């Protein structure tokens, strides 16, 4: 394989890597993408099997420590109350993501100015707005225009059904005079460009065998490969190399499918390995110029890790809620408690998300992201017959604020199958988050009762969902100040002028919404900035 | 050939499954001791040394404490006995419970009995009627009536 330098080398073929590759297509630069996983073919997705639920506890677990596939890297979670989850392959974690697609809100970009916490982003909502819209078109987003919780915008496709469960909960919110809206979803409500609309199978985490979900394996990658982007799968980058004289990134060393070490040089290196994989790679890329890890003169690589800590509250209704029908995570979303309210005992806020209920095995084993089986014996029968079909739940999705001690480091012993040091997570819940969760549980209970629940079930243990590190943010944050941030306002490393980062690690704050629409909008924005500044890119 | 439970322990396991997931006769829902469940368990234990050892230990203890003078095949296991076992051997019991739920609910028939589609969920999926524009208008009317709901900045 030639090691001739290519124009653009993208590391990671997930949500952000795909979006920036698409943005750069029109430059006609030679683009190569190295991805440690392979192609996931929809015909092989487990939801075509009769025992499809088993895959959730094996090869299609969202937890790489459970999957343990050669393309996965283990993650040491001994020092964390939340386990990061992901998928490694073409499409990245959008292969098993759930397609919930809210945007961040204008105030999310200004947490410091508005609330005196964290930092402001170097960009604002208005800057990202056109890229949100562009990405929504490319992804095939469905939703209802006119959500008063946002400046005006219109999703390109009509909403998916909110179903009986969504309608029931909506009435509860209306009863209390609280905000709610049908969720925006990266899921097709109508057939588009050879992609089929959603068939309401409810197993979005097992890949989407219908191709209705807007994972970048279905959206961007077919277009990119057709357009000549070279995608090298089973290629795991070990380290990014730096030219000692110029201080620029010169290329990478990577392990090919046989584990052999290869080198690929490039003019421009773009890292898109997600909020855990990116700091891990940079920390593994040490040199004389960067003894503490590449682009880490600020010491911020790996720091300020943010998830969205979650808890669920369920209502038991008199009629079956049919929660197994329809996309798992997407029905309606309330942002009534999203913004700071000085009368509360916490700053910033949370969303109340109504997912649907899950399939019987997952329910019996404790729920998605939870390992605590329901009781056995007669109590089991009662829960399965009298509660499970009648459930409608709300998930409290809180904004996590950046704290330096929440971080990704390298494990001193654990490695992946190529012997590369694995990441270790250090994470604990802040008191602010705990107070937010308690507030959210009380409000969710009120809504469920207002919606007609005969009983409300909450887990009073103070624990958050364990396998719920779906969103991995903040570990190489953006900022204008090289002392306190890793990349500038358009994704370029402060320290290495031809190195860009485009995944969720560059988030300054996390908002209280699922991040992927923002991650991809940011990647498109960074791509656009690169195109606009092409002549002076490395100045 | 991998691990295999003795017929004595299989008998103990069958009774245990019946207690872990009782059936519901009125709703025609089978118990944990149903076709497919035992086969799944045996298959899972075959090549997994740790799991096999955990479950063998557990079943042996039930068997020994319930048989005394009578023959093993006549052992009668009660829910009380299982509760004791659960508190004495939480880790082993948790493994058995988890495996039982996986075995039981991975079968199409279990889904059907709970009102879900027995079929592989793709490509057929489920039919969910779309809300009409009118219904969505009505449902969202109170939300829209409150006007813009985001923080100006
Ligand atoms: C179960 C689950 C549910 C989710 N649900 C939602 C949701 O409903 N809505 C939402 O907005 N978000 C959701 N997410 C999160 C969403 O998937 C991520 O935000 C998004 O995929 C992140 O994009 P990314 O490009 O940063 O990383 P990823 O999409 O994870 O892609 C990173 C890629 O980099 C590759 N890589 C990493 N290291 C290397 C290396 N050293 N060499 C080569 N390749 C490498 C990986 O294999 C991977 O393919 C969910 C995630 C999970 C796991
Ligand atoms: S519910 Fe819809 S989006 Fe989810 S997997 Fe099924 S078809 Fe795909």
Q: Which series of helices and strands of chain A comes N to C? A: EHEHEHHHEHEEEEHEEEHHEEEHEEH
Which CATH architecture of chain A is right? 3-Layer(bba) Sandwich
Question: Judging from the principal axes of the Cα atoms, what is the shape of chain A?
Answer: globular
Q: Rg of chain B to the nearest angstrom?
A: 24 Å
Mean pLDDT of chain B, as a whole number? 92
Most extensive contact:
A-B, 70 and 55 residues
End-to-end span of chain A in angstroms? 32 Å
Q: List cofactors, ions and other ligands.
A: flavin-adenine dinucleotide, iron/sulfur cluster
Order of helices and strands of chain B: HHHHHHHH
Topology-level CATH name of chain A: FAD/NAD(P)-binding domain
Number of alpha- plus pi-helical segments of chain B: 8
Written account of the structure:
- The complex is a heterodimer of chains A (539) and B (153).
- Chain A has helices spanning 15-24, 64-67, 111-115, 125-139, 163-176, 220-226, 274-284, 360-364, 378-387, 431-450, 516-532, and strands spanning 6-11, 31-34, 76-80, 181-182, 230-232, 236-242, 249-255, 261-271, 310-316, 332-334, 350-354, 391-398, 407-415, 421-427, 455-458, 499-501.
- The two termini of chain A are 32 Å apart.
- The mean pLDDT of chain A is 96.
- In chain A, 22% of the residues lie in helices and 17% in strands.
- Chain A contains eleven helices and 16 strands.
- Chain B is elongated.
- Chain B is mainly α.
- Chain B has one domain (7-119).
- Chains A and B meet through helix 5, strand 4, helix 8 and helix 9 of A and helix 5, helix 6, helix 7 and helix 8 of B.
- Bound molecules: flavin-adenine dinucleotide (FAD) and iron/sulfur cluster.
- Flavin-adenine dinucleotide is lined by residues 11-17, 34-37, 62, 85-89, 92-94, 96-100, 205, 236-237, 272-274, 277, 281, 329, 470-471, 503-504, 514-516, 519 of chain A.
- Flavin-adenine dinucleotide binds at residues 11-17, 34-37, 62, 85-89, 92-94, 96-100, 205, 236-237, 272-274, 277, 281, 329, 470-471, 503-504, 514-516, 519 of chain A.
């Amino acid at each position: 394989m030639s090691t001739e330098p290519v124009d653009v080398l993208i590391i990671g073929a997930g949500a952000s890597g795909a979006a920036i590759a698409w943005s750069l297509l029109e430059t006609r630069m030679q683009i190569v993408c190295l991805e440690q996983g392979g192609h996931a073919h929809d015909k092989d997705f487990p939801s075509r099997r009769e025992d499809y639920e088993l895959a959730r506890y094996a090869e299609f677990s969202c937890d790489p420590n459970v999957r343990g596939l050669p393309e996965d890297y283990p993650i040491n979670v001994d020092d964390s109350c939340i386990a990061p989850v992901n998928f490694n392959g073409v499409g990245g974690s959008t292969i098993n993501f759930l397609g919930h697609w809210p945007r961040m809100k204008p105030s999310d970009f200004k947490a410091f100015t508005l609330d005196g916490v964290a930092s402001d982003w170097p960009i604002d909502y208005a800057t990202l707005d056109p890229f949100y819209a562009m990405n929504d078109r490319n992804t095939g987003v469905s939703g209802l225009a006119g959500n008063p919780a946002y400046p005006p915008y219109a999703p390109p496709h009509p909403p998916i059904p909110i179903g009986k469960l969504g309608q029931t909960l909506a009435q509860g919110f209306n009863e209390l005079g609280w905000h709610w809206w049908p969720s925006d979803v990266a899921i097709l409500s109508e057939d588009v460009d050879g992609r089929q609309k959603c068939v309401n199978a409810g197993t979005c985490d097992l890949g989407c065998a219908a191709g209705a979900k807007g994972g970048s394996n279905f959206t961007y990658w077919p277009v990119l490969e057709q357009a000549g982007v070279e995608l090298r799968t089973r290629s795991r980058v070990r380290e990014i190399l730096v030219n000692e004289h110029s201080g620029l990134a010169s290329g990478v060393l990577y392990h090919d499918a046989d584990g052999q070490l290869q080198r690929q040089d490039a003019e421009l290196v773009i890292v898109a390995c997600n909020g855990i994989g990116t700091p891990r790679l940079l920390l593994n890329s040490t040199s004389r110029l960067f003894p503490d890890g590449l682009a880490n003169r600020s010491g911020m690589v790996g720091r300020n890790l943010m998830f969205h800590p979650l808890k669920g509250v369920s209502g038991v209704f008199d009629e079956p809620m049919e929660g197994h029908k329809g996309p798992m995570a997407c029905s309606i979303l309330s942002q009534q408690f999203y913004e700071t309210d000085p009368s509360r005992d916490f700053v910033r806020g949370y969303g109340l998300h109504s997912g649907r209920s899950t399939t019987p095995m997952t329910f019996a084993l404790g729920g998605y992201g939870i390992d605590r089986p329901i009781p056995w014996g007669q109590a089991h029968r009662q829960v399965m017959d009298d509660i499970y079909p009648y459930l409608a739940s709300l998930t409290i999705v809180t904004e996590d604020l950046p704290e330096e001690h929440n971080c990704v480091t390298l494990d001193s012993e654990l490695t992946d199958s190529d012997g590369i040091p694995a990441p270790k997570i250090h994470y604990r819940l802040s008191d602010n988050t705990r107070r937010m969760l308690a507030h959210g549980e009380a409000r969710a209970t009120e809504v469920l009762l207002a919606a007609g629940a005969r009983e409300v079930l909450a887990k009073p243990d103070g624990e958050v969902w364990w396998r719920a590190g779906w969103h991995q943010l903040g570990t190489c944050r953006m900022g204008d100040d090289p002392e306190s941030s890793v990349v500038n306002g358009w994704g370029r490393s402060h320290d290495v002028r031809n190195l860009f980062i485009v995944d969720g690690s560059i988030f300054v704050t996390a908002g209280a919404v699922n991040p992927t629409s923002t991650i991809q909008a940011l990647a498109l924005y960074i791509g656009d900035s690169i195109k606009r500044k092409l002549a002076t890119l490395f100045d | 050939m991998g691990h295999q439970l003795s017929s004595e322990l299989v008998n103990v396991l069958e009774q245990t499954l019946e207690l872990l997931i009782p059936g519901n006769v009125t709703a025609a829902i089978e118990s944990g001791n149903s076709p497919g469940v035992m086969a799944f368990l045996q298959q899972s234990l075959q090549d997994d040394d740790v799991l096999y050892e955990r479950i063998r230990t557990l079943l042996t203890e039930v068997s020994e404490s319930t048989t005394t003078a009578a023959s093993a095949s006549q052992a009668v296991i009660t829910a009380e006995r299982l509760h004791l076992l659960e508190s004495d051997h939480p880790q082993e019991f948790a493994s058995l419970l988890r495996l039982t739920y996986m075995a039981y609910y991975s079968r199409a028939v279990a889904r059907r009995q709970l009102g879900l589609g027995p079929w592989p969920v793709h490509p057929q999926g489920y039919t969910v009627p779309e809300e009409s524009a009118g219904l969505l208008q009505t449902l969202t009317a109170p939300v829209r009536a409150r006007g813009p709901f985001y923080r100006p900045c």
